[in-house]
Amino acid sequence: RCPESGDRPMTALEVPTHLVDAGLIAQLLLGALAVLVAVAAPARLRSVLTGSVVVLAGIAAAVTGSAALVGAVGVGLQIPVVLPLAAPLEPLVLAPDRLGGLFMALAGVVVALAALFGIGYAHGPAASRTGWTAFSVFAVGMQLVPAATDAITFLLAWELMAGGSTALLLADHASREPVRRSTVWYSVMTHLSFLFLLAGFGVLAAASGGTSWASISGAALTGTPATTAFLLLVAGFATKAGLVPVHVWLPRAHPEAPSHMSAAMSAAMVKMGVYGLLLLTLRLLPTGPRWWSIVLIALGTVSALYGILQASVQADLKQLLAYSTTENLGLITTAIGVGLLLRDSGQPAVADVALVAALLLAVSHAAFKSVLFLGAGSVLQATGERCLLYTSPSPRDGLLSRMPSSA
């Protein structure tokens, strides 16, 4: 029953509405608690306590996203969490719709699994105050990206995700030189993505007169502003998704990142790029010219082919999985482009099939890539090796040398 309505029973759609509201607040509180615990907890309890809180934050995101997915069917009953700003801007609002709910639930499940694995796996710098604080910020920022209803909130959550992941990747730089180089690549590319998004959303806000998704979509932009914003935003989202040619951070960052972070990055973080492409083409600029679809198909096809070819010749287990991510994100982007092309061709039913296929692949990729990266972490922890093949004359070099002989 709804507390403010006396004896009137809740309707079926009001229940998930209140879950969305409570879930968003829970994520913010749990994120703040995780940072506090990471800073204040003693070293021997830090991983257990902080990891447990992050697991709870992931579960809250999964429940929130699922509630939004069920409760936002055509009626918009969400109760937004409004964060007022001192500056004369529109208030920050978190209120996921059905599409955002799906990606929030996906991110929440992946974060919960990665944090649970990290409790026993994290060691050294990854288990330090910096390591767990960065992972907590990264996780909560990633979970809030799909909940944003305006460009400012979106970019703030995006930067939380980018800053937390960069700090965690850099945690082991003092003892391992490759980490420094990988972090430079990752930092440059992730902030290049932010600059593209900032410029693209700036064009949309200037042309529409507002920063909210409702203002931008209601303006029905066309012509030069729409095309400029489309190209800038596609570049920003493609960089985060790891599509060719802006994929260069993926095979460098994944081998050097802690494996629970690699799982969260590959299974969930890159999906925020997919979410951005869907948000752009289905809601913000849904009436673009046909060549926009062709751009997405070309990006996706090249990425899928390049990714699988590179993955097939990698000896490093985590680099192989990184290139596989580029391949799968290419397939998802191709499906989105095909769906948009079919929609523009007057075949909405077939277009819906292509878009649903893109979403299904996004969910399935999150599932199997989480398992693969966490499995790679277990192998690395047990053997100290991530190289699959011989790379030197040493008889114990590479995982292949440790497998039982079939002869």
Task: Give structural notes.
The N and C termini lie far apart (69 Å). A hairpin with an 8-residue loop joins strand 1 and strand 2 (92-94). Helix content is 72%, strand content 1%. The chain is globular and about 55 Å long. It is mostly helical. Strands 1-2 form a two-stranded antiparallel ribbon. Helix 1 runs antiparallel to helix 2. It contains 13 helices and 2 strands, in the order ααββααααααααααα.
Question: How is the topology of this model organized?
Answer:
Layout (H helix, E strand, L loop, with lengths): L13 H27 L2 H29 L9 E3 L8 E3 L3 H24 L7 H16 L6 H20 L6 H32 L4 H6 L4 H19 L8 H7 L2 H26 L5 H22 L5 H28 L3 H36 L24
Antiparallel strand pairs: 1-2
Helix pairs in contact: 1-2, 1-4, 2-3, 2-4, 3-4, 3-10, 3-13, 4-5, 5-6, 6-8, 6-9, 8-10, 9-12, 10-12, 10-13, 11-12, 12-13
Give the amount of beta strand, in percent: under 5%
Following the backbone from N to C, one meets helices and strands in this order, namely HHEEHHHHHHHHHHH
The largest β sheet comes out as: 2 strands, antiparallel
Determine the N-to-C terminus distance.
69 Å
